[in-house]
Design a protein that fits this description.
single chain; 202 residues; alpha+beta; GIY-YIG endonuclease; four-stranded antiparallel sheet; elongated
Length: 202
């Protein structure tokens, strides 16, 4: 990442810091700022010195970077510009955005991916915007990783016992019932055979 790639993303033309005035700056609105070293333009190392953000460009750039008022980082940039001779070679550009914090951190992440570190004038801070990754394991309130439950081995279902069904044997055809002996009553009523006929009494 360098000043050329920033302009390709929509940054303004680079304005020398030593000649900048309030009329050069956008009205109070969210912007992302980049300060570059014009002497490093076109060289292998990046010419970007600083990537910042503000919603009050006039106060931040004129009062902070050039005037020395503000926080620790603004005073550091002021010292680099005035004491280290960067005022003669530093230029500044910006891009307007509704979400300056998010855009600044996305640019810082990209810069760190390309160069292994943040720009020289940026404070070494932890970036809040995280690259998309696979979801981490849930943690407990004490910061100890919660162990994922070990899946229980599935036991094979027990075979259900089938009721024993007695094999139905084919019923043999019933034979003709055997002749039973005649009862005495039947014998009495039965007609005698020819051999048994008694001779008629004359």
């Amino acid at each position: 990442m360098n000043s050329k790639t920033l302009m390709e993303t929509g940054f303004s033309e680079w304005v020398p810091l030593k000649t900048i005035t309030l009329s050069n700056l956008p009205a109070n609105q969210g912007i992302v700022i980049a300060i570059v070293d014009k002497e490093l333009e076109g060289k292998p190392e990046s010419d970007i010195l600083y990537i910042g953000r503000t919603k009050k460009p006039g106060k931040r750039i004129l009062g902070g970077y050039l005037g020395g008022y503000g926080g620790k980082n603004a005073r550091k940039i002021n010292q680099m510009l005035l004491s280290e001779g960067y005022l003669e070679k530093a230029t500044i550009g910006w891009i307007q955005t509704d979400k300056p914090r998010i855009m600044q951190e996305e640019l810082l992440i990209k810069f760190k991916e390309d160069h292994g570190a943040l720009p020289a004038w940026n404070a070494k801070k932890k970036l809040n915007v995280k690259a998309k990754k696979a979801p981490l394991e849930p943690k407990t309130s004490k910061g100890v990783k919660k162990k994922a439950p070990t899946p229980k081995a599935k036991t094979a279902p027990k075979p259900t016992r089938k009721a024993k069904t007695s094999a139905t044997k084919p019923v043999a055809k019933s034979e003709a019932p055997a002749k039973t002996e005649m009862t005495t009553e039947e014998q009495a009523g039965a007609e005698p055979t020819e051999g048994e006929k008694t001779p008629a009494v004359k």
